[in-house]
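Hey,
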Amino acid sequence: MENHLVISANGPWYELFYNLAFIVCLVIYLYEGYSRKFPMLKWIFLLAVTQLLFIFGTKVVTFSADDFYLLFTSFQLPETQNKSLAGGLLFGGIGFFAGIAFLRFKQNISDAFALALPMGIAIQRLGCFAAGCCHGRISDLPWAVKYPVQTLPHFHQFNDNLITHSDFLSLPVHPVQLYEMLGLLAVVAVILKLRNSFKAKGSLVLLSFILIFVVRFVVEFFRDPAAHTIGGEMFFVFNTTQLVLLPLTVIFIFILWKNERTYHAAPSSTAVDFSPAIAFLLFLIIITCFRALKYWFTLPEVIALVIKFIVAFTLIGIRLFQKLYYSPYRWLYLAGFILPVVLTAQTFPAGLQDSVYVKKYKTIKIGMGTGDFENSYEIGQGEGCDRISNTEYFRQQYTLGGAAFEFTEERPELKQQFRYGAEAMIGKHTETRISDNKVNNTTLFGLTPYLNYDINWLGMGGGLHMGNLSFAYENTSDEGSGIPQTGSNKVYVYPQIYLRAGPQRWIFIDYRLANHFPSAFPGIRQQFGIGTGLGTDNGTRLRLGYNTTDIYYFTGYVPIKNKVVIEPMILWGKSPLDITGKNYYQFSLSVGYRFGFSEGERLIKNN
């Protein structure tokens, strides 16, 4: 027994194989989606939801009664190091089938998982073997392995009085993780061999599940009951896991038989994918949920999810750039993709510090805005003295109101602030062409999810405006012919961008694109400003700047006793017609109320 292999259980092997498993699965999924002609944005969205719920399920099924009490009374997810593959498959499966219904997938999606499932689990079992989790029963076989102190085999055997304080190695145990890995690789081989042998949709993945269940059922005879998070209780020679797997296998065999027996060829359906804007919004919602739960995920889980989000936003960016290739604003749209990068970067555990002071609160805001100003729009051909053009002048008038709900998380010691939320607005925009008094009335409305991240010297953020929107041209001159009919441009989707350099407490410069509450439309589309916090530490900010339509602005952000925030803004300038010398204006005012404060020391996990 002294010649048994000793597994050191040191190093990042569990994390390495965990992430390798997800990467291999992702590659298989992308290949399957491409080869089966899936709508790829919908496909990746479904994968992200399924994976997020899979990880959630591996943990939530291990909760104790006290954990569930904390969850439902305090709305906090209890931290847990326990995991259950069965829970992951359960919640991942629910998310998968709900996603198919929500996305209205008509293609044969389920069979795309037939190969990836056993392959991913097989690779992950190497990480379990290196870490010692899910370990086997005691064995004298030559290929049995030993584990050192601070591993589960050693811990469980010590608790059972099988070893003492003086034993620095566990008794040899079955390498059940390798047994399962070999069995799952055999499943992969069978799936590859039979992948074209079935007629009905879903039959291949049903076979994959059946074979996975059989492998797991057999391996359970060699697994130590103490190594189970759940399902290790024994009934005669079977444990609870086996008693669940046995009827499941029979049911799946029956479903497979029925599926093939009742097969009827169906006409192929045309795949309809998301628009890039809808895909961006949906992934932004998922990442926001992911960001809100970031302290609940381990580093390997964060890395696995971030990789999938990177692939998703890369594809969305390519699609968006292709769609807007000839648009002068394509780079502004693509710049909005800095938002998910910032958000996902914040899910990685911080280093160096063991804990950080965190302050959280919510803000509800209401606001109004009004404006009366003039702009010009020129269409012409040629250059210099040879240029022939038509210029029209327009009067822009608007009145609107808005509301917003925002979440804020601050880390004063690190000088970090993260804000995310949503704004809604509604109003009326009247445009009058001055040459003939032609009037065009538009009802404005929109919804804007957004995120902002600030540190001491830098700030960035953005969002996505959606609705019936319009922005006034900034005294624009374009090449072409004809008479300008309007001085504004209607849009249904538009990016929001925020960039800052310099400490807000002292002096800083910033640029904002369509970033203003209650609304940047129609007349506050761009802002170039300089600001100061007057040396205060309560968040007060005053800004003065220029918005490219010969209009200047002054705005403030004034917290009162850390509860109420007042944000006034006034813009002024002269008409491009400049006949009467009259000043035109825009004005807005919003009031916010902060509530739901919570603060305290939070541990930073250094995995």
